[in-house]
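Let's practice the habit of predicting before peeking. Look at the sequence and jot down your guess about where helices and strands might fall. Then scroll down.
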Amino acid sequence: MTLASYANILTRYDLIGASEVKEIKVTSKDTVIQEIMQCVIEGDTDAIGGLVEKALINMDPLKVIDEGLIKGMGEVSRLWADGTYYLPQVIIASDAMLEGIDLCEAKLGKKMEKKGVVVTHTAEGDIHDLGQKIVNALFRANGYEVIDLGKDVPVDDVVAAVKKYKPLMVTGTALMTTTMTAFEKISNQLTHAGIDIPFVCGGGAVSNEYVTAYKLGVYGKDAQQAPKMISDVSNGFSWQELREKYN
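Done guessing? Here is the structure:
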């Protein structure tokens, strides 16, 4: 049989109705800042560069970052939490935000000040890093520097990165039960080294029972928890307090 119409073959079904659900709750009196926020929310990487460069002609780079890029990504976080946005929208919005921040930092001549550092990775032997990418985007949207170690990361490399960057938190994701065992090995090495920070672990294979069976472990049930968790850690929560609150 042949199709009567081929019009829908390349349709982005995840974006159908997007304009209807985008009731944006962040606004600015400055039209350029508003357009920058809109670009981030829509993940428009083609337009974001020109708009940011236009804003930087007369505007402080930090204002562009705080009032345009960060606020726009904050709205993306809200849409994600509401179940309106999914992985594709979060990733492309993060790409747009980071492109804009790079231009602003070039204008500043230095990196913008971050609230703190987070080390993220996908477990050794595991290449399923979609969950990690979402978490990275949400951390960055909330003003944290993310040391993204990538996927299939050896245990020793994670421990070395924690020692090097001294993060507020380290996170790990795993889809397979055969790979999540790396998390306990990381916990043991960090504990042996006297490093006492939250190690938030999540992913399809991971359970609350498994993660809370070893020191430092905090179970991350959903990526939506990431901004709340890192905020609590920034405010002085220990891994025990974080576990008590979320697990």
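How did you do? Residues 43 and 93 are 4 Å apart (CA to CA).
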